[in-house]
Structure of Adenosylhomocysteinase:
Amino acid sequence: MDYRVADLSLAEFGRKEITLAEQEMPGLMAMRAEYGASKPLTGARIAGSIHMTVQTAVLIETLTALGAEVRWASCNIFSTQDHAAAAVVVGKDGTPDDPQGVPVFAWKGETLPEYWECTAEIFNWGEQLPNMILDDGGDATLLVHKGVEYEKAGAVPQPGPDDPEELGVILAQLKKSISSGTSRWVEIGSAIMGVTEETTTGVHRLYEMAREGSLLFPAISVNDAVTKSKFDNKYGCRHSLIDGINRATDVLIGGKVAVVCGYGDVGKGCAESLRGQGARVIITEIDPICALQAAMDGYQVTTLEDVLSYGDIFVTTTGCRDVISADQMSRMKHQAIVGNIGHFDNEIDMAGLAKIAGIVKDEIKPQVHEWTFEAGTDRAHSIIILSEGRLLNLGNATGHPSFVMSNSFTNQVLAQIELYTKPEDYPTDVYTLPKALDEKVARLHLDALGVKLTELTPTQAAYLGVPVEGPYKPELYRY
Ligand code: NAI
Protein backbone atom coordinates (compact mmCIF):
# COMPACT_ATOMS: atom_id res chain seq x y z
CA MET A 1 0.00 0.00 0.00
CA ASP A 2 1.42 3.43 -0.90
CA TYR A 3 0.95 6.46 1.32
CA ARG A 4 2.79 9.57 2.53
CA VAL A 5 1.97 10.71 6.05
CA ALA A 6 4.00 12.15 8.94
CA ASP A 7 4.16 9.27 11.40
CA LEU A 8 2.21 5.99 11.51
CA SER A 9 2.92 5.59 15.22
CA LEU A 10 0.30 8.31 15.81
CA ALA A 11 -2.40 5.93 14.55
CA GLU A 12 -3.54 4.73 17.97
CA PHE A 13 -4.24 8.31 19.14
CA GLY A 14 -5.95 9.00 15.83
CA ARG A 15 -8.15 5.90 16.18
CA LYS A 16 -9.26 6.98 19.67
CA GLU A 17 -10.31 10.41 18.38
CA ILE A 18 -12.03 8.87 15.34
CA THR A 19 -14.03 6.60 17.65
CA LEU A 20 -15.11 9.61 19.74
CA ALA A 21 -16.00 11.53 16.56
CA GLU A 22 -18.21 8.69 15.27
CA GLN A 23 -20.57 9.24 18.19
CA GLU A 24 -20.81 12.92 17.22
CA MET A 25 -21.46 12.18 13.53
CA PRO A 26 -24.92 10.60 13.52
CA GLY A 27 -25.53 11.41 9.85
CA LEU A 28 -22.50 9.47 8.67
CA MET A 29 -23.25 6.57 11.00
CA ALA A 30 -26.83 6.50 9.64
CA MET A 31 -25.37 6.29 6.11
CA ARG A 32 -23.37 3.23 7.20
CA ALA A 33 -26.48 1.65 8.74
CA GLU A 34 -28.65 2.39 5.69
CA TYR A 35 -26.19 1.54 2.90
CA GLY A 36 -23.57 -0.68 4.59
CA ALA A 37 -25.21 -3.88 3.31
CA SER A 38 -26.16 -2.79 -0.23
CA LYS A 39 -22.83 -0.98 -0.78
CA PRO A 40 -23.98 1.42 -3.52
CA LEU A 41 -20.43 2.74 -4.02
CA THR A 42 -19.00 -0.65 -5.02
CA GLY A 43 -16.70 -0.01 -7.97
CA ALA A 44 -16.34 3.69 -7.15
CA ARG A 45 -12.67 4.77 -7.08
CA ILE A 46 -12.76 8.11 -5.32
CA ALA A 47 -9.94 10.65 -5.55
CA GLY A 48 -10.60 12.69 -2.39
CA SER A 49 -9.19 16.09 -1.47
CA ILE A 50 -10.50 17.56 1.78
CA HIS A 51 -8.65 18.69 4.93
CA MET A 52 -7.31 15.40 6.39
CA THR A 53 -8.88 15.73 9.83
CA VAL A 54 -10.45 13.35 12.32
CA GLN A 55 -13.89 14.18 10.86
CA THR A 56 -12.66 13.45 7.35
CA ALA A 57 -11.39 10.10 8.62
CA VAL A 58 -14.99 9.22 9.56
CA LEU A 59 -16.10 10.32 6.07
CA ILE A 60 -13.41 8.20 4.38
CA GLU A 61 -14.32 5.13 6.40
CA THR A 62 -18.01 5.70 5.60
CA LEU A 63 -17.22 5.79 1.87
CA THR A 64 -15.26 2.53 2.13
CA ALA A 65 -18.05 0.96 4.25
CA LEU A 66 -20.35 1.75 1.32
CA GLY A 67 -18.06 -0.14 -1.06
CA ALA A 68 -15.80 2.61 -2.45
CA GLU A 69 -12.05 2.50 -2.87
CA VAL A 70 -10.41 5.78 -1.90
CA ARG A 71 -7.12 7.69 -2.24
CA TRP A 72 -6.88 10.89 -0.20
CA ALA A 73 -4.98 14.19 0.03
CA SER A 74 -5.59 17.32 2.06
CA CYS A 75 -6.82 20.48 0.32
CA ASN A 76 -4.58 22.75 2.40
CA ILE A 77 -0.90 22.59 3.35
CA PHE A 78 -1.53 23.22 7.07
CA SER A 79 -4.85 21.46 7.78
CA THR A 80 -3.86 17.81 8.17
CA GLN A 81 -4.14 16.27 11.62
CA ASP A 82 -1.24 13.84 11.47
CA HIS A 83 -2.79 11.36 13.90
CA ALA A 84 -5.97 11.18 11.81
CA ALA A 85 -3.96 10.62 8.63
CA ALA A 86 -1.96 7.85 10.33
CA ALA A 87 -5.09 6.12 11.64
CA VAL A 88 -6.72 6.13 8.20
CA VAL A 89 -3.62 4.59 6.62
CA VAL A 90 -3.27 1.93 9.34
CA GLY A 91 -7.01 1.17 9.26
CA LYS A 92 -9.10 -0.47 11.96
CA ASP A 93 -7.51 -3.90 11.46
CA GLY A 94 -3.94 -2.95 10.63
CA THR A 95 -0.87 -1.99 12.64
CA PRO A 96 1.80 0.63 11.89
CA ASP A 97 3.98 -2.26 10.65
CA ASP A 98 1.17 -3.69 8.57
CA PRO A 99 -1.09 -0.83 7.43
CA GLN A 100 -4.36 -1.99 5.94
CA GLY A 101 -6.41 1.16 5.56
CA VAL A 102 -6.63 3.77 2.82
CA PRO A 103 -3.75 5.46 0.95
CA VAL A 104 -3.41 9.00 2.30
CA PHE A 105 -0.95 11.61 1.02
CA ALA A 106 -1.03 14.43 3.56
CA TRP A 107 0.82 15.89 6.52
CA LYS A 108 0.72 19.17 8.42
CA GLY A 109 3.16 21.68 6.95
CA GLU A 110 3.51 20.52 3.35
CA THR A 111 5.41 22.76 0.94
CA LEU A 112 3.50 23.88 -2.14
CA PRO A 113 5.33 21.43 -4.46
CA GLU A 114 4.58 18.63 -1.97
CA TYR A 115 0.93 19.71 -1.85
CA TRP A 116 0.56 19.38 -5.63
CA GLU A 117 2.48 16.09 -5.65
CA CYS A 118 0.00 14.76 -3.07
CA THR A 119 -2.94 16.02 -5.14
CA ALA A 120 -1.52 14.24 -8.21
CA GLU A 121 -1.11 11.05 -6.11
CA ILE A 122 -4.86 10.71 -5.55
CA PHE A 123 -5.26 10.27 -9.32
CA ASN A 124 -2.49 7.66 -9.57
CA TRP A 125 -4.36 4.32 -9.45
CA GLY A 126 -1.72 2.28 -11.33
CA GLU A 127 -3.43 0.16 -13.97
CA GLN A 128 -6.86 1.44 -12.94
CA LEU A 129 -8.37 4.91 -13.21
CA PRO A 130 -10.25 6.93 -10.61
CA ASN A 131 -13.90 7.48 -11.53
CA MET A 132 -15.11 9.98 -8.89
CA ILE A 133 -13.70 13.13 -7.26
CA LEU A 134 -14.61 14.44 -3.84
CA ASP A 135 -13.19 17.95 -3.66
CA ASP A 136 -12.92 20.96 -1.35
CA GLY A 137 -11.97 24.20 -3.03
CA GLY A 138 -11.60 22.66 -6.48
CA ASP A 139 -7.84 21.99 -6.61
CA ALA A 140 -8.25 18.28 -7.49
CA THR A 141 -10.79 19.20 -10.17
CA LEU A 142 -8.49 21.95 -11.45
CA LEU A 143 -5.55 19.55 -11.75
CA VAL A 144 -7.56 17.15 -13.93
CA HIS A 145 -8.88 19.95 -16.15
CA LYS A 146 -5.42 21.48 -16.63
CA GLY A 147 -3.87 18.02 -17.10
CA VAL A 148 -6.35 17.15 -19.84
CA GLU A 149 -5.85 20.52 -21.53
CA TYR A 150 -2.05 20.29 -21.62
CA GLU A 151 -1.83 16.59 -22.40
CA LYS A 152 -4.13 17.15 -25.39
CA ALA A 153 -2.07 20.17 -26.47
CA GLY A 154 1.10 18.08 -26.14
CA ALA A 155 2.86 20.67 -23.96
CA VAL A 156 2.64 22.36 -20.58
CA PRO A 157 3.11 26.15 -20.91
CA GLN A 158 5.69 28.16 -18.98
CA PRO A 159 4.27 30.47 -16.30
CA GLY A 160 4.46 34.16 -17.21
CA PRO A 161 6.43 36.68 -15.10
CA ASP A 162 3.22 38.09 -13.57
CA ASP A 163 1.63 34.71 -12.78
CA PRO A 164 1.29 33.71 -9.13
CA GLU A 165 4.05 31.48 -7.77
CA GLU A 166 1.58 28.64 -7.23
CA LEU A 167 0.74 28.40 -10.94
CA GLY A 168 4.40 27.65 -11.65
CA VAL A 169 4.26 24.86 -9.06
CA ILE A 170 1.11 23.37 -10.62
CA LEU A 171 2.58 23.52 -14.11
CA ALA A 172 5.80 21.85 -12.94
CA GLN A 173 3.78 19.07 -11.30
CA LEU A 174 1.72 18.55 -14.46
CA LYS A 175 4.83 18.47 -16.61
CA LYS A 176 6.34 15.81 -14.33
CA SER A 177 3.20 13.67 -14.24
CA ILE A 178 2.62 13.86 -18.01
CA SER A 179 6.22 13.07 -18.97
CA SER A 180 6.52 10.20 -16.46
CA GLY A 181 3.09 8.83 -17.40
CA THR A 182 2.09 8.46 -13.72
CA SER A 183 -1.12 10.34 -14.48
CA ARG A 184 -2.89 9.79 -17.77
CA TRP A 185 -4.96 12.95 -17.62
CA VAL A 186 -7.02 12.54 -20.79
CA GLU A 187 -8.03 9.03 -19.73
CA ILE A 188 -8.70 10.22 -16.19
CA GLY A 189 -10.83 13.11 -17.47
CA SER A 190 -12.99 10.67 -19.46
CA ALA A 191 -13.20 8.14 -16.62
CA ILE A 192 -14.42 10.62 -14.00
CA MET A 193 -18.20 10.33 -13.62
CA GLY A 194 -18.52 13.37 -11.42
CA VAL A 195 -17.26 15.57 -8.62
CA THR A 196 -18.93 16.54 -5.37
CA GLU A 197 -17.63 19.91 -4.19
CA GLU A 198 -17.55 20.98 -0.57
CA THR A 199 -17.04 24.74 -0.46
CA THR A 200 -18.20 28.11 -1.79
CA THR A 201 -14.93 28.87 -3.57
CA GLY A 202 -14.80 25.47 -5.33
CA VAL A 203 -18.42 25.80 -6.42
CA HIS A 204 -17.66 29.25 -7.81
CA ARG A 205 -14.94 27.68 -10.00
CA LEU A 206 -17.33 24.92 -11.16
CA TYR A 207 -20.02 27.38 -12.23
CA GLU A 208 -17.39 29.34 -14.14
CA MET A 209 -16.26 26.23 -16.02
CA ALA A 210 -19.88 25.23 -16.74
CA ARG A 211 -20.55 28.73 -18.11
CA GLU A 212 -17.43 28.60 -20.34
CA GLY A 213 -18.35 25.09 -21.50
CA SER A 214 -15.06 23.65 -20.24
CA LEU A 215 -16.47 21.47 -17.42
CA LEU A 216 -15.54 17.86 -18.22
CA PHE A 217 -17.98 16.00 -15.95
CA PRO A 218 -21.08 16.64 -13.82
CA ALA A 219 -20.75 18.22 -10.40
CA ILE A 220 -22.90 18.41 -7.32
CA SER A 221 -22.44 21.50 -5.18
CA VAL A 222 -22.57 20.07 -1.69
CA ASN A 223 -21.97 23.59 -0.41
CA ASP A 224 -25.36 24.71 -1.68
CA ALA A 225 -27.23 22.14 0.38
CA VAL A 226 -28.90 24.16 3.13
CA THR A 227 -27.62 21.65 5.67
CA LYS A 228 -24.08 22.46 4.49
CA SER A 229 -23.62 26.19 3.94
CA LYS A 230 -26.13 27.38 6.53
CA PHE A 231 -24.54 25.11 9.17
CA ASP A 232 -20.87 24.32 8.46
CA ASN A 233 -20.02 27.77 7.07
CA LYS A 234 -21.91 29.56 9.84
CA TYR A 235 -21.98 27.47 13.01
CA GLY A 236 -18.74 25.66 12.14
CA CYS A 237 -16.85 28.94 11.79
CA ARG A 238 -18.62 30.31 14.86
CA HIS A 239 -16.83 27.52 16.73
CA SER A 240 -13.50 27.23 14.97
CA LEU A 241 -12.61 30.89 14.27
CA ILE A 242 -12.07 31.82 17.89
CA ASP A 243 -10.55 28.40 18.56
CA GLY A 244 -7.88 29.31 16.01
CA ILE A 245 -7.32 32.82 17.37
CA ASN A 246 -7.11 31.52 20.95
CA ARG A 247 -4.70 28.69 20.22
CA ALA A 248 -2.53 30.98 18.11
CA THR A 249 -2.36 34.02 20.36
CA ASP A 250 -4.35 33.49 23.57
CA VAL A 251 -5.18 37.18 23.43
CA LEU A 252 -8.30 38.23 25.35
CA ILE A 253 -10.97 38.87 22.72
CA GLY A 254 -13.41 40.66 25.06
CA GLY A 255 -13.26 44.44 24.65
CA LYS A 256 -11.19 44.32 21.47
CA VAL A 257 -12.24 45.75 18.13
CA ALA A 258 -12.63 42.84 15.72
CA VAL A 259 -13.07 43.56 12.02
CA VAL A 260 -14.76 40.89 9.91
CA CYS A 261 -14.45 41.38 6.15
CA GLY A 262 -17.48 39.80 4.50
CA TYR A 263 -20.88 39.04 6.00
CA GLY A 264 -21.88 35.92 4.09
CA ASP A 265 -22.43 32.58 5.81
CA VAL A 266 -18.87 32.37 7.14
CA GLY A 267 -18.78 36.05 8.11
CA LYS A 268 -22.05 35.75 10.04
CA GLY A 269 -20.68 32.86 12.10
CA CYS A 270 -17.36 34.63 12.71
CA ALA A 271 -19.01 37.91 13.75
CA GLU A 272 -21.31 36.11 16.17
CA SER A 273 -18.47 34.23 17.84
CA LEU A 274 -16.36 37.35 18.28
CA ARG A 275 -19.34 39.25 19.66
CA GLY A 276 -20.01 36.29 21.97
CA GLN A 277 -16.54 36.83 23.44
CA GLY A 278 -17.32 40.49 24.07
CA ALA A 279 -15.48 42.00 21.13
CA ARG A 280 -16.83 45.12 19.43
CA VAL A 281 -17.33 43.75 15.94
CA ILE A 282 -17.17 45.85 12.78
CA ILE A 283 -18.13 44.48 9.37
CA THR A 284 -16.95 45.39 5.87
CA GLU A 285 -19.08 44.33 2.90
CA ILE A 286 -19.45 45.01 -0.82
CA ASP A 287 -22.99 43.62 -1.12
CA PRO A 288 -25.73 46.01 0.04
CA ILE A 289 -27.97 43.12 1.15
CA CYS A 290 -25.33 41.58 3.40
CA ALA A 291 -24.29 45.05 4.62
CA LEU A 292 -27.90 45.77 5.57
CA GLN A 293 -28.19 42.40 7.30
CA ALA A 294 -25.06 43.17 9.32
CA ALA A 295 -26.43 46.58 10.28
CA MET A 296 -29.79 45.11 11.31
CA ASP A 297 -27.92 42.47 13.35
CA GLY A 298 -26.44 45.38 15.27
CA TYR A 299 -22.95 45.61 13.81
CA GLN A 300 -21.24 48.78 12.64
CA VAL A 301 -20.57 48.46 8.91
CA THR A 302 -17.82 50.55 7.39
CA THR A 303 -14.79 50.32 5.13
CA LEU A 304 -11.50 48.71 6.03
CA GLU A 305 -9.71 52.06 5.57
CA ASP A 306 -11.86 53.52 8.35
CA VAL A 307 -10.84 50.94 10.94
CA LEU A 308 -7.20 50.24 10.06
CA SER A 309 -5.80 52.41 12.80
CA TYR A 310 -7.80 50.97 15.69
CA GLY A 311 -8.84 47.39 14.80
CA ASP A 312 -7.24 44.77 17.06
CA ILE A 313 -8.24 41.66 15.10
CA PHE A 314 -8.89 41.45 11.34
CA VAL A 315 -10.49 38.37 9.77
CA THR A 316 -11.21 37.91 6.05
CA THR A 317 -14.17 35.69 5.19
CA THR A 318 -14.92 36.72 1.60
CA GLY A 319 -13.66 34.13 -0.90
CA CYS A 320 -12.47 37.25 -2.80
CA ARG A 321 -8.89 38.37 -3.53
CA ASP A 322 -6.81 41.35 -2.32
CA VAL A 323 -9.19 42.14 0.53
CA ILE A 324 -6.40 43.40 2.81
CA SER A 325 -3.43 44.92 1.00
CA ALA A 326 0.16 45.03 2.23
CA ASP A 327 -0.03 48.80 2.52
CA GLN A 328 -3.14 48.50 4.69
CA MET A 329 -1.37 46.03 6.98
CA SER A 330 1.50 48.48 7.36
CA ARG A 331 -0.98 51.04 8.73
CA MET A 332 -2.52 48.77 11.38
CA LYS A 333 -1.89 49.30 15.07
CA HIS A 334 1.00 47.56 16.77
CA GLN A 335 0.43 43.79 17.17
CA ALA A 336 -2.90 43.75 15.38
CA ILE A 337 -3.85 40.15 14.59
CA VAL A 338 -4.59 39.37 10.94
CA GLY A 339 -6.07 36.11 9.75
CA ASN A 340 -8.11 34.60 6.94
CA ILE A 341 -10.82 31.96 7.16
CA GLY A 342 -11.81 32.05 3.46
CA HIS A 343 -10.63 29.16 1.31
CA PHE A 344 -7.53 30.59 -0.41
CA ASP A 345 -4.59 32.66 0.82
CA ASN A 346 -5.09 35.46 -1.71
CA GLU A 347 -7.52 37.40 0.54
CA ILE A 348 -4.54 38.89 2.37
CA ASP A 349 -1.66 40.13 0.21
CA MET A 350 1.07 37.99 1.73
CA ALA A 351 3.34 38.29 -1.33
CA GLY A 352 3.12 42.09 -1.14
CA LEU A 353 3.83 42.02 2.60
CA ALA A 354 7.06 40.11 2.09
CA LYS A 355 8.21 42.71 -0.45
CA ILE A 356 7.86 45.75 1.85
CA ALA A 357 11.27 47.34 2.37
CA GLY A 358 12.69 46.78 5.85
CA ILE A 359 10.08 44.23 6.92
CA VAL A 360 11.21 41.34 9.15
CA LYS A 361 9.30 38.08 9.64
CA ASP A 362 9.78 36.23 12.91
CA GLU A 363 8.26 32.85 13.74
CA ILE A 364 6.62 32.86 17.18
CA LYS A 365 5.59 29.24 16.61
CA PRO A 366 4.46 27.31 13.52
CA GLN A 367 1.56 29.14 11.82
CA VAL A 368 2.04 32.26 13.99
CA HIS A 369 4.37 34.97 12.65
CA GLU A 370 5.17 38.47 13.76
CA TRP A 371 5.91 40.79 10.83
CA THR A 372 7.76 43.93 11.89
CA PHE A 373 7.66 47.03 9.71
CA GLU A 374 10.61 49.42 9.74
CA ALA A 375 12.44 46.90 11.93
CA GLY A 376 15.36 48.28 13.89
CA THR A 377 14.12 51.87 13.74
CA ASP A 378 12.25 53.80 16.41
CA ARG A 379 9.18 53.55 14.19
CA ALA A 380 9.19 49.74 14.33
CA HIS A 381 5.74 48.22 14.72
CA SER A 382 4.37 44.80 13.95
CA ILE A 383 1.33 42.70 13.10
CA ILE A 384 0.70 39.04 13.84
CA ILE A 385 -0.28 36.90 10.86
CA LEU A 386 -2.01 33.59 11.43
CA SER A 387 -1.36 30.53 9.24
CA GLU A 388 0.59 32.62 6.71
CA GLY A 389 -2.74 33.94 5.41
CA ARG A 390 -4.25 30.48 4.87
CA LEU A 391 -7.43 29.39 6.60
CA LEU A 392 -6.69 29.91 10.26
CA ASN A 393 -9.36 27.70 11.78
CA LEU A 394 -7.65 24.67 10.24
CA GLY A 395 -4.07 25.96 10.41
CA ASN A 396 -4.14 27.19 14.00
CA ALA A 397 -6.85 24.88 15.36
CA THR A 398 -8.57 21.70 14.27
CA GLY A 399 -11.30 23.06 12.01
CA HIS A 400 -14.97 22.47 12.60
CA PRO A 401 -16.15 19.99 15.21
CA SER A 402 -17.62 16.61 14.32
CA PHE A 403 -21.32 17.32 14.71
CA VAL A 404 -21.45 20.10 12.14
CA MET A 405 -19.16 18.19 9.77
CA SER A 406 -21.55 15.26 10.00
CA ASN A 407 -24.13 17.45 8.23
CA SER A 408 -21.68 18.46 5.49
CA PHE A 409 -20.26 14.99 4.99
CA THR A 410 -23.63 13.23 4.96
CA ASN A 411 -24.41 15.50 2.01
CA GLN A 412 -21.08 14.46 0.47
CA VAL A 413 -21.96 10.77 0.78
CA LEU A 414 -25.45 11.28 -0.66
CA ALA A 415 -23.99 13.33 -3.52
CA GLN A 416 -21.40 10.63 -4.32
CA ILE A 417 -24.16 8.00 -4.38
CA GLU A 418 -26.31 10.21 -6.66
CA LEU A 419 -23.59 10.84 -9.24
CA TYR A 420 -22.17 7.32 -9.15
CA THR A 421 -25.43 5.37 -9.26
CA LYS A 422 -27.57 7.64 -11.47
CA PRO A 423 -25.23 8.99 -14.18
CA GLU A 424 -28.15 9.26 -16.64
CA ASP A 425 -29.85 11.82 -14.35
CA TYR A 426 -26.81 14.11 -14.35
CA PRO A 427 -25.53 15.26 -17.77
CA THR A 428 -22.46 17.48 -17.41
CA ASP A 429 -23.51 20.55 -15.42
CA VAL A 430 -23.53 21.77 -11.80
CA TYR A 431 -26.37 20.49 -9.60
CA THR A 432 -27.57 20.74 -6.03
CA LEU A 433 -29.00 17.85 -4.04
CA PRO A 434 -32.78 17.47 -4.06
CA LYS A 435 -34.46 19.22 -1.12
CA ALA A 436 -35.82 15.92 0.18
CA LEU A 437 -32.23 14.76 0.78
CA ASP A 438 -31.37 18.08 2.45
CA GLU A 439 -34.27 17.60 4.86
CA LYS A 440 -33.19 14.00 5.40
CA VAL A 441 -29.71 15.16 6.46
CA ALA A 442 -31.25 17.56 8.99
CA ARG A 443 -33.61 14.88 10.27
CA LEU A 444 -30.68 12.54 10.92
CA HIS A 445 -29.21 15.08 13.35
CA LEU A 446 -32.30 15.91 15.41
CA ASP A 447 -32.37 13.00 17.86
CA ALA A 448 -28.83 13.61 19.03
CA LEU A 449 -29.87 17.10 20.14
CA GLY A 450 -33.14 15.98 21.71
CA VAL A 451 -35.20 17.85 19.14
CA LYS A 452 -38.89 16.90 18.97
CA LEU A 453 -40.35 17.77 15.59
CA THR A 454 -43.99 18.76 15.17
CA GLU A 455 -45.80 16.74 12.50
CA LEU A 456 -48.22 18.31 10.07
CA THR A 457 -51.73 16.87 10.07
CA PRO A 458 -53.00 15.88 6.60
CA THR A 459 -55.40 18.86 6.76
CA GLN A 460 -52.55 21.25 7.60
CA ALA A 461 -50.39 19.75 4.86
CA ALA A 462 -53.21 20.18 2.32
CA TYR A 463 -53.70 23.78 3.53
CA LEU A 464 -50.00 24.54 2.99
CA GLY A 465 -49.90 22.51 -0.23
CA VAL A 466 -46.97 20.32 0.87
CA PRO A 467 -46.69 16.57 1.48
CA VAL A 468 -46.95 15.54 5.18
CA GLU A 469 -43.45 14.03 4.92
CA GLY A 470 -41.92 17.02 3.06
CA PRO A 471 -40.22 18.63 1.29
CA TYR A 472 -41.70 21.64 3.04
CA LYS A 473 -40.20 24.66 1.33
CA PRO A 474 -40.06 25.87 -2.29
CA GLU A 475 -36.60 25.97 -3.94
CA LEU A 476 -36.49 29.76 -3.57
CA TYR A 477 -36.84 29.68 0.21
CA ARG A 478 -33.65 31.06 1.79
CA TYR A 479 -33.76 29.83 5.39
P1 NAI B 1 -20.49 33.98 0.87
O1 NAI B 1 -20.52 34.27 -0.57
O2 NAI B 1 -21.74 33.58 1.59
O3 NAI B 1 -19.88 35.21 1.69
C1 NAI B 1 -18.79 35.97 1.29
C2 NAI B 1 -19.17 37.44 1.53
O4 NAI B 1 -18.03 38.26 1.31
C3 NAI B 1 -20.26 37.91 0.58
O5 NAI B 1 -21.34 38.45 1.31
C4 NAI B 1 -19.57 38.99 -0.27
O6 NAI B 1 -20.44 40.02 -0.64
C5 NAI B 1 -18.46 39.46 0.67
N1 NAI B 1 -17.32 40.05 -0.02
C6 NAI B 1 -16.78 39.72 -1.23
N2 NAI B 1 -15.73 40.49 -1.51
C7 NAI B 1 -15.58 41.35 -0.47
C8 NAI B 1 -14.66 42.39 -0.18
N3 NAI B 1 -13.69 42.71 -1.03
N4 NAI B 1 -14.81 43.05 0.99
C9 NAI B 1 -15.80 42.74 1.86
N5 NAI B 1 -16.71 41.78 1.63
C10 NAI B 1 -16.60 41.08 0.48
O7 NAI B 1 -19.39 32.83 1.06
P2 NAI B 1 -19.17 31.94 2.38
O8 NAI B 1 -19.93 30.70 2.23
O9 NAI B 1 -19.35 32.79 3.55
O10 NAI B 1 -17.65 31.53 2.18
C11 NAI B 1 -16.60 32.49 2.25
C12 NAI B 1 -15.26 31.80 2.07
O11 NAI B 1 -15.03 30.90 3.15
C13 NAI B 1 -15.15 30.94 0.82
O12 NAI B 1 -13.83 31.02 0.33
C14 NAI B 1 -15.43 29.54 1.33
O13 NAI B 1 -14.93 28.55 0.47
C15 NAI B 1 -14.74 29.59 2.67
N6 NAI B 1 -15.18 28.64 3.70
C16 NAI B 1 -14.27 28.39 4.68
C17 NAI B 1 -14.58 27.54 5.71
C18 NAI B 1 -13.58 27.25 6.76
O14 NAI B 1 -13.78 26.33 7.54
N7 NAI B 1 -12.50 27.98 6.85
C19 NAI B 1 -15.90 26.90 5.80
C20 NAI B 1 -16.81 27.28 4.75
C21 NAI B 1 -16.44 28.13 3.74
Q: What stands out?
A: The longest strand covers residues 360-365. The domain at 234-396 is CATH 3.40.50.720 (Rossmann fold).
